[in-house]
Amino acid sequence: MSDIYRSFIKGRIMTFNHNIIDKILEEIFPLPECFGIIEGVDPTTEITNITDKIRQIEPTVSLYHGASKMVISSPMIGNTVIKIPFNGFYEEDCETGELYWNDFCWATGSDSSDYCLAEYEKYHRLKTYGLDCFVAKTLYYKTIDGIRIFLQEQVTPENDLCSFYTPSQQSKNIANKWYTEGKFNIESEWIANCLDKYGQSKVKRFLHYCKNIDLDILEDAHDSNFGYRANGTPAILDYSNFLD
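^ thats the sequence. predicted structure below, dont judge the formating
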């Protein structure tokens, strides 16, 4: 088990197998020069090819992508996912029908082209405020061909859960009241679960932070971007707020 590394996260353990991760990364790099998405196409040819290559070395791999990053998971990796940022996206010219390339330039971090880096920096900023429990822990892993690779603790999106966590009625009432007052724009039941797990004072501080310090965290909040850890605690797994 020497390949298994553990990172302790306030009572939780984040495990990752360096050997499997490196084999996966060796298989998919170098990435295509224009590595990204094609609007309206899911999945892209590049993503399909990468998935096929990875599954030849590790059949349990699952690969997902949003608008700004690719996510690789497997039980063999550990309770951790690999996150790789896209460079940009193809867009169709409405007059000619031809595809042209757009570089990302709106990520709200120290590199405006890298949404994964923005997420990593947001996590560490939240940590300084003692509010990192609300988001999935993100670690920098390595850089390959100029592309930064990140590892993130595994959080199951709410829309992928077979059963849902039911908050207390008291927390539901508070969350519904706050939602009506416009204190947040995320599903009130998830906030109610936060109230049960983290307490009202901490949730208030988090919502204040999202309203006044970093508006991006909850701007793209939907049931694919927030969910629950294996121990039942709620967390946001994609909090970089994609803008193109």
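The chain is about 30% helix and 25% strand.
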